[in-house]
Amino acid sequence: MNYLEQLKLYTKVVADTGDFESIKQFKPIDATTNPSLIYAAAQQEQYQHLVHDAIKKGNGKGNTEDKLDEIADNLAVNFGSEILKIVPRRVSTEVNARLSFDIEASLHKARKLIKMYEEKGIAKEKILIKLASTWEGIKAAEVLEKEGIHTNLTLLFSRAQAIACAEAGVKLISPFVGRIYDWYKNVKGVSHIPGADDPGVHSVQYIYSYYKKFGYETEVMGASFRNIEEITELAGCDLLTISPALLSELENMEGKLNRKLLPELAKQMTFEQIHLDEKTFRWMHNEDAMAIEKLSDGIRRFNADMNKLKKLISELI
Question: Domain 3-316 classified CATH 3.20.20.70?
Answer without folding.
Answer: yes
